[in-house]
């Protein structure tokens, strides 16, 4: 049986521990142990637990950023509804999978501050997907597929806010059932499109 490279094992272990015990309680020592390596080896690949967390988000969860980059680079491909549906689907999956990991950030002020500092240093942050959707919608606006009157930033915020809310709201109660992602994405895209299409 082929052994995975240490960096891959560390990311796998970090992802699993962050999901099961939370970011705050997933120590680098426990992550290294679960990955079958030393803590020193972990720091060979990742400068801090915060960087490791960001790498888990970007490498282990649904990839929203590449999708947005591709759509903005080549607007006009597929229908606007199909593109918005895929954005909503990927975003809903991303927030659904990242919310249980990221929630513990808000419980510890110092952890959140360190995390925010590393995000800024790496040029990352929760605002990036909104900017990505806004950039894509402005590109479609230039092609005439989005109304010139449409506020693309507000539309991007509404779309991603709804996806984040889907992850948050349905974990809070057992009575409410989270809408299936494909149905949710289609309905959200169709509703948003009604307000911005030309």
UniProtKB/TrEMBL annotation:
Residues 27-46 bind DNA. Residues 4-64 form the HTH tetR-type domain. The keyword Phosphoprotein does not apply. Keywords: DNA-binding, Transcription, Transcription regulation. GO terms for molecular function: DNA-binding transcription factor activity; transcription cis-regulatory region binding. It comes from the Bacteria. The keyword Transcription regulation applies. This is TetR/AcrR family transcriptional regulator. InterPro entries: Homeodomain-like_sf (IPR009057), HTH-type_TetR-like_transc_reg (IPR050109), HTH_TetR (IPR001647).
